[in-house]
Protein 1
Amino acid sequence: MKSMQDDAIEILIVDHEEVTALFEQFRGLSSRSTESKKRIATDICDALTVHALLEQEILYPAAMSVLKDGEMIAQAIVEHSSARELIDRIRAMEPESELYDATVKVLWDQVTRHAREEEEKMFPRLRKSKLDLVALGARMTAYRQTLDVAGTQCKNTDISISPT
């Protein structure tokens, strides 16, 4: 029997929860905890980059085939592009910068809204579709492993794709 973790949607929801926990850790740090801030912000950026690749390379193309809702997918892709810009800024900044915390906060706000829209709108529609979410989950797990092996190469990957 397959576990819920094998389901593509459950994999993505676990990612959402893990990133939320990282953002909460970041938020709890004092302004003097610059090393911890940098480490946690890097973990957030890494996790979001991998997550976005899983969605854009595997989930969204499959979702397009069953949802026939290009607007929902296009909006998600634009949100990823916006997040990528913030991720690039955060990676280039030092935690002592006066805009560092604010940039992480804006990323958090965008990611929270994006995840909520997926979980409330897209994911329920995908659950009702004929999409094989377990097979997609297996593809995501395999792809994540290749990204983990690639390591730092993933950090510089352009995550934008065409919604077609």
Protein 2
Amino acid sequence: MDSPFLPLATAAYLARRPEQPLTLPDDVQQLVEAVHGDADTLARTDAALRRSHTLHQARTRTEEHHSLLHLVPAWHDTLSLSDLHRQNLHPREAATRLGAMPRRLLPVYRMACGRLTLDAAGTRPLPEHRKPTTAQIRTILQHTLPVPVAWVAGRTRDHHVPASWRSHALLADLILLAQDAGDPSRPVRFGRHRLHLDGALGLVHTED
């Protein structure tokens, strides 16, 4: 069942929109980000909408928290019953409060030929059309970075992992930060958020 906040927020957004035509599909992304993304600004315009937004956030965070904690490996990755409840979790990534689980970002580089690699020089290609080996999965996970949910809320199909990864419990929810290997300093856009990996500064985040 969908949250009652979403139709209320959509109606409020459209009511406050300037008198001009709504162009499809050009204006859809902005509408989706305003309602399904960071809707705090919109919720502050009305007391009833603010209460509905608070309930919506609580419900969403509860569902996300439970779904991330109940991670069930695929059958081919399960060697014993202990694999169904053991999680390899670093202390810095442990959730200490509701909604604290971040999204995992994988910085990669897209070569001119379209191939994805872990380095801008293209010497560490990623397996895109076959299931990664155990060693490759370990390397991939070592390169991931935790980021706030809001930073990657505007992700598109370009940020999805390869199809061959989606059956693996530890890779399916990764979000690709696919940087241009020819111009790695150019930020990658996630809606109104822009991210890129800098060799000296680490992950750099800017916002429109």
Protein 3
Amino acid sequence: MKKLSFLALLIISVLAFSRPLQAQVRLNVNVNIGNQPVWGPVGYDYAQYYYFPDIDVYYDIPRRQYVYLNGNSWRFAPTLPTRYHFDVYRGYKVVINESQPWLHPDVYRGRYARYKGPGWYGKQDIIRDSRDSKYYVVKGHPMYGKGNNGNGNGNGNGWKNDDDRGRGNGNGNGNRGRGNGNGNGHGRGHD
């Protein structure tokens, strides 16, 4: 009987551990706010490309290059040619997180044709004008590098003596909105 029980337990163990686990959890978190240009639209923690419906041009954010059609081929360049009279701050931008969208231009032209034209010009909030502190890491933002590094005013406990003002904990806005402050405490007296 012991041999039979052992054999059954061995078979069950082999079957249980030989099959791959069915449930797997995968978590990818992509954030590239600091790499996006100041003229990019707000609301996206991650953006790989921008598409400009008005001029049928893409912007590759990681490479910091425009992708535009020149004859029958797509060109990559850090600036747009002068034939494009386009204000990237006011023109509408569509975020695309699909690989090489310019290889399927008809898909994007059709999908985003409604954002083409003067009705959308200047209607999109951009990173430069945002007061959300998560965008302060974007070079060129008015608040870039202007955090207070966690310094602030604090409240603390002190002695009744006016000379001893106490120690305080400060609140600051440094380090992406998180900081340990050094403050001057205003104490409450002890008898």
